[in-house]
Design goal:
The protein is an alpha/beta fold. The chain is built from 7 helices and 19 strands. The chain folds into 2 domains: 188 residues, FAD/NAD(P)-binding domain (3-Layer(bba) Sandwich), CATH 3.50.50.60; 117 residues, FAD/NAD(P)-binding domain, CATH 3.50.50.60. The strands form 5 sheets. Strands 1, 2, 5, 6, 7, 8 and 19 form a 7-stranded mixed β-sheet that branches. It has a 5-stranded parallel β-sheet with strand order 10-17-11-12-13. A 3-stranded antiparallel β-sheet has the order 14-15-16. Helix 1 links the parallel strand 1 and strand 2. Helix 1 packs parallel to helix 7 and helix 5 runs parallel beside helix 6. The longest helix is centred in the last third of the chain and has 25 residues. Bound molecules: NADP nicotinamide-adenine-dinucleotide phosphate (NAP). NADP nicotinamide-adenine-dinucleotide phosphate (NAP) binds next to helix 5. The site of NADP nicotinamide-adenine-dinucleotide phosphate has 18 residues, from helix 5.
Length: 315
């Protein structure tokens, strides 16, 4: 196919969607290039045990699974650039993709940049990031051995984090803003059955303490029903309130919803720009699973391949 000047396929993003897209494109002899980002691996790098990815009956650690996916894509000739994309020009083909170091050209582009952890937005939260405020229980839980921590959120992530933290912390307080959980009932049942976890509902964090002291010593909570405030002594404040898609680079070019998720055609990964496909969490605010991300990466690759084959046939 083409030389290295204009790539057949550039994949932006090194998560399950990006590596699966690359695996398929590589096996189709398209010599894909993955610009995987400096911190490749995506959200699974900050996940603990993955028990719901088919093919791992005993479960697998997220980073191990990502390393496996990357190795599998590499086996068929995928090339990797371990750098962040800083800008794209999708006004015409070939598309231009720039990192700080180089500009790359592609006939087709697969956007698989995923999503990132959402922040609550408190000034004290920002001030204490890395000083007791964490967005990754799996990464940081071990620092809180024998201590008391809080987890904010009511989805599967928050409950999973709370359960994981009980392996290290003496006590975990799960703080949720409503009195009903978004998480799956089985997760709620596990959390309720865990003696180390206390559940506080209809509560929101008002301030993480103590920004002046330079480390987390507690949190001031407000009851959303009564307006009453109370303080909880903790040394770890774990935020698990969902994610934002990494689409800033693409918003000027690609159709997106109000939350910034890229819009793809139904039953397709095609965006509004012919030749640009989107796969994984960057276009999926509903399922957001590694397996669905990988599946849409496969779809994107097949669609890119078909488009290139049709174009080759025309010429
Ligand atoms: P999520 O389902 O969107 O839940 C976010 C939670 O944070 C919600 O309970 C939400 O409250 C709360 N929240 C949002 N903004 C907040 C704020 N500013 N202050 C306080 N609370 C706030 O996100 P997620 O838990 O990260 O899960 C994302 C997806 O991944 C879901 O589809 C989930 O099922 C999936 N997931 C699956 C597994 C698994 O199967 N093992 C593990 C983790 C995640 P409200 O409920 O009031 O909106």
């Amino acid at each position: 196919m083409s030389g290295k000047g204009v790539r057949n396929v550039i994949v932006i993003g090194g998560g399950p969607a990006g590596y699966t897209a690359a695996l398929y494109a590589a096996r189709a002899m398209l010599e894909p290039l993955v610009i995987e980002g400096v911190s490749w691996g995506g959200q699974l790098m900050i996940t603990s045990e993955v028990e719901n990815f088919p093919g791992y009956p005993e479960g697998v650690l997220g980073p191990q699974m990502m390393s496996d996916l990357r190795t599998q894509a590499e086996r068929f000739g995928t090339e990797f650039v371990t750098d962040d994309v800083v800008s794209v020009d999708l006004s015409k083909r070939p598309f231009r993709v720039s990192t700080d170091e180089q500009e790359l050209l592609a006939k087709t582009l697969i956007v698989a940049t995923g999503a990132n952890a959402r922040q609550i937005g408190l000034a004290s939260e920002l001030a204490l990031q890395g000083k007791g405020v964490s967005y990754c229980a799996v990464c940081d839980a071990a620092f809180f051995r024998g201590q008391e921590v809080a987890v904010i959120g009511g989805g599967d992530s928050a409950l999973e984090d709370a359960l994981f933290l009980t392996r290290f912390a003496d006590k975990v307080t799960l703080v949720h803003r409503r009195d009903e959980f978004r998480a799956a009932p089985i997760m709620v049942a596990r959390v309720e059955a865990n003696e180390k976890i206390e559940i506080l509902t209809s509560m929101v964090p008002e301030e993480v303490l103590d920004p002046d002291g330079g480390r987390v010593t507690g949190v001031r909570l407000r009851n959303t029903k009564t307006g009453d405030t109370s303080e909880l002594e903790i040394s770890g404040f774990f935020v698990a309130i969902g994610h934002e898609p990494n689409t800033a680079l693409f918003l000027d070019w690609l159709d997106h919803d109000e939350a910034g998720y890229l819009i793809t055609r139904p039953r397709s990964t095609a965006t509004n720009v012919p030749g640009v496909f989107a796969a994984g969490d960057v276009q999926d605010s509903v399922y957001r699973q590694a397996i669905t991300a990988a599946a849409s990466g496969c779809m994107a690759s097949l669609e890119a391949e078909r488009m290139l084959a049709a174009e080759e046939h025309e010429h």
